[in-house]
Amino acid sequence: MLNDKFNREHKHISLAHGSGGKLMHNLIKNLFLPSFGNPLLSKLDDAAVFEVGGKKLAFSTDTYVVNPLFFPGGNIGKLAVCGTVNDLAVMGAKPLWLSCGMVIEEGFDYDILSKIITSMKKTALQAGVEIVTGDTKVVEKGKCDGVFINTSGVGIISGDPLDIENIQEGDAVIVNGSLGEHGIAVLSCRTGLGFTTRIESDCAPLNDFIDEILSNSDGVRFMRDPTRGGLATTLNEIVEARDYGILLNEKDIPVSDGVKGACELLGFDPLYIANEGKVVVVVEKEKANNVLEVMHKHKLGINSAVIGYISVKCKRKVCMKTVSGGTRIIDMLVGEQLPRIC
Amino acid sequence: MCLGIPVKVVEIKGKQGIGDIGGVRREVDLRFLEDVKVGDYVILHAGFAIQKLNEEEAKETLSFLEKMNM
Amino acid sequence: MKYIDEFRNRKFCEALSKKIREEVYGEKRMTLMEVCGTHTMAIARYGLKNLLPENIRLLSGPGCPVCVTPNPDIDKAIGFCRLKNIIITTFGDMMRVPGSSSSLQREKADGADVRIVYSPNDAIKIAIANPEKRVIFLGVGFETTAPTVAASIKDAREEGLKNYFVISMHKVMPPALKALVKGEEVKVDGFLLPGHVTTITGTEVYNFIPRNYGIACVVAGFEPVDILQAALMLVRQIKNKKPLVENQYTRTVTKEGNPYAKKLLNDIFKQTDAEWRGIGIIPKSGLCIREEFADFDAEKTFELKIEESKEHPDCICGEILKGVKEPIDCPLFDTICTPENPVGACMVSSEGTCSAYYKYRSYDIDEDNRG
Fold first, then answer.
1. Which of C16, C35, C108, C279 sits at a 20 to 30 Å CA gap from A106?
2. Is residue C263 in a domain?
3. Does residue A230 form part of some domain?
4. What is the pLDDT along chain C (371 residues), one digit of tens a residue?
5. Of the candidates A247, A317, A324, which has its C-beta nearest C46's C-beta?
6. Between A and C, how many CB-CB pairs are < 8 A?
7. Hey, is the C-beta of C62 within 8 angstroms of any chain B C-beta?
8. How many Å from the N-terminal Cα to the C-terminal Cα in chain B?
């Protein structure tokens, strides 16, 4: 059976299992889902949505292990707050309360920790959430990379929760700006690759932006934030086991020159690079222009664009018309992207 | 087997230079080329410039394609 | 991006595609082969197969230096990982390639210090920064890359470094092309030749192909427009029955190539017989480090315990590399051998034929919906 084959072949967990792509998906499907098995988890949404006392709540969690801890445009603390806030916001929830679990390496500099905490406080304030509970552990030197942070969060959904089941043929697929900025910003700090760039992480809380969209327009069917594994992975998740696919136009996908340059240098594909301040919005075709107008008015949506459409012509697949006029399939990320010379 | 991209030389120090593509910069080893000037485009592979890009030839190729397109 | 975007121009691609169609209309099928993994990738990434007519068959040959590295060499690299007090430095391309029972990535997961570098210069920097460790650089690649590795060995000598070593798994193209055309297993009408290898070697090294074997040759750049223009030039040569070596990539490639790079390559390396996965031993097709630089030769310095190399019995990477079979002909393709669990190098290397085919399957939406 698939699970046994998976177990036999993958006796060790490798870095690829955490990169957000196929291996991670398989790990979740073959180990976590069968073990924890329940209908809420099986939806594999960005947040679990359930009802308590007549109120719809969304609940999500995220763990941050980014290295380096500080990078252009942010740090692990800011990321940890934004990540969970955004997972709640894309479900249509108003994020309210976060927990914060920290694993700190023995010998870690107190001032640096203080900077991270201050950043978390600032980001939480900006997002309108409160960190209401937490946990702290210290591990021996070498047992973690400085600091690992987990945040979990709860939000309230007042309208109808956005549901993937609402998506229909012809719906427009919109993204709010240039892809790949977070991934490239983090990579630029890694030694051994030796490139410098002015690119900054796009890390930002999206809840205010998403609230603007939902309050000032209708026709939004579904949202998701494309983080690890990039836009390609997120779009593949949307069409998995569906009877529709997504047809993209490469020329319409916003990618800044800096990200393009870094990708050319390393042999990377921007569609697979992590984002931390982007949202994919699937909108009823006729309402797309109106949604775009609302998005353009917000600072996080200035470069929003329609990048493609839901199409039954490419079931369960994400396809793309390339800038040169050919067409190709965009698969989910498999393993990490590695810099290449070939 | 040859990921090589055109980068613009923005700085030269002896046989080392800095190449720029889209604002991204990287050290470029210039030892395989003669007469590189700031502003030249070179083909970057594995941290080395393997050739100067001949801008005249590039323009000629593009102009040939324009004519063919009409 | 200058000198990149213009060569991805859709109008040019469509015009070239149209011209190719006109030229081959009514002609019998032509088989073109590209012998550069970067070409395989580019064709797949831009969906260029859609833009070529049905009577042009485009094959991928042994152009991926990672894919053609046979298991015993991969096993050697893995053997180095298991030595004490070493740092393995490698291009990213090698990380996931499966050897007989492991890969660099797996060794790293098990605790080996394996670091990806972008340039051999970065490996030298690591050696200087870690004097108590032995730094071994895995030298893979063809004539484009070998000079850069040669430069690092020269620098190591000039710096007096005692802790920098290279394992040379480098190969050179022309002998492999000769073996391919002599082999006659696949009838190739034209070669799309590797633009960046030729930037170093110059175009003359390929003259024997049209002269002795009557096969058309065009040296091509790597953008969609370059590839399509080169295909058009090949088609015309084939139709006119006038095979020669033509240069499409004139903005970078010349007849002489790069004399400085060639000289350094020859100063540090010499040609040797080498084994190519699936093809076997090709005389004088590999590069080994000359005696004078033996201090930097990892194979001469370290004693390795390597397991006996074995290949999966059903893996047909060799035939795929020769262009004799295509990925869909392989019983393992997309069943046991997938990008996340590769059996052979063709699947794991980012530009291996099977990997490119799997990841970037050219997709004709209308065809899929007619069926």
1. C108
2. yes
3. yes
4. 999 999 999 999 999 999 999 999 999 999 999 998 899 889 988 989 889 999 999 888 888 888 888 889 999 999 999 999 999 999 988 888 888 888 898 899 888 999 999 999 999 999 999 999 999 999 999 999 999 999 999 999 999 999 999 999 999 999 999 988 887 777 899 999 999 999 999 999 999 999 999 999 999 999 999 999 999 999 999 999 999 999 999 999 999 999 999 999 999 999 999 998 878 899 999 999 999 999 999 999 998 877 777 777 788 887 887 778 888 888 888 888 887 777 877 777 666 788 877 766 555 555 555 43
5. A324
6. 150
7. no
8. 34
A189 and A54 in a single domain? The answer is no
Tokens representing C299?
A: 């194979």
A69 by DSSP, 3-state: which? coil
Instruction: Give the domain range for residue A175.
Output: 164-330
Q: Are residues A192 and A322 in the same domain?
A: yes
Residues C342, A9 contacting (CB under 8 angstroms)? no
Q: What is the pLDDT of residues C261-320, one digit of tens each?
A: 999 999 999 999 999 887 889 999 999 999 999 999 999 999 887 777 777 778 888 788
Distance from the A324 Cα atom to the nearest Cα atom in chain B, whole angstroms: 14
Is B8's CB within 8 Å of C148's CB?
A: no
The answer on pLDDT for B35 being more than 80 is yes
A140 and A230 housed in the same domain: no
Of C3, C64, C121, the CB nearest to B53: C3
Residue A78 belongs to domain with CATH number: 3.30.1330.10
What is the percent of chain A with per-residue pLDDT over 90, rounded to a whole number?
A: 69
Specify the CATH number for the domain of residue C127. Answer: 3.40.50.11740
Q: Which residues contact C138 (CB under 8 A, 6 or more apart)?
A: C77, C80, C88, C89, C90, C91, C94, C167, C169
Beta bridge partners of B41: B8
Q: Which of A320, A329, A342 sits opposite C66 (nearest CB)?
A: A342
Residues of B with CB under 8 A from a CB of C: 1-6, 8, 21-22, 26-27, 29, 31-34, 41, 43, 45-48, 50-51, 53-55, 57-58, 60-62, 65, 68-69
Q: Search chain B and give the residue with CA nearest C119.
A: B46
Whether A35 is covered by a domain: the verdict is no
Q: Is the dihedral of CA A159, A161, A167, A171 positive or negative?
A: positive
Q: In what order do the strands lie in the sheet with C164-168?
A: C114-116, C86-90, C134-139, C164-168
A129 and A172 part of one domain:
no
**Boundary-marking domain end, from A139, A157, A175:** A157
Cα–Cα nearest to C311, from C138, C73, C142, C66: C73
Model ipTM value: 0.96
Instruction: Give chain C's domain count.
Output: 1
Task: Please tell me the distance in Å from A194's CA to the nearest CA on chain B.
Answer: 6
Q: Which domains does chain B have, with CATH numbers?
A: 5-69 (2.30.30.140)
Which residues on chain C are in Cβ contact (under 8 Å) with A169?
none
Is residue A4 in some structural domain?
no
Beta strands in chain C (DSSP E): 30-34, 56-60, 86-90, 114-116, 134-139, 164-168, 190-194, 216-220, 245-247, 269-276, 280-289
Inside any domain, residue C349: no
Contact A342/B47, CB-based, under 8 Å? no
A34 φ/ψ angles, rounded to the nearest 5 degrees: -60, -35
Identify the CATH number of the domain in which residue A230 sits: 3.90.650.10
pLDDT at C368: 54
**Percentage of chain B exceeding pLDDT 70:** 97
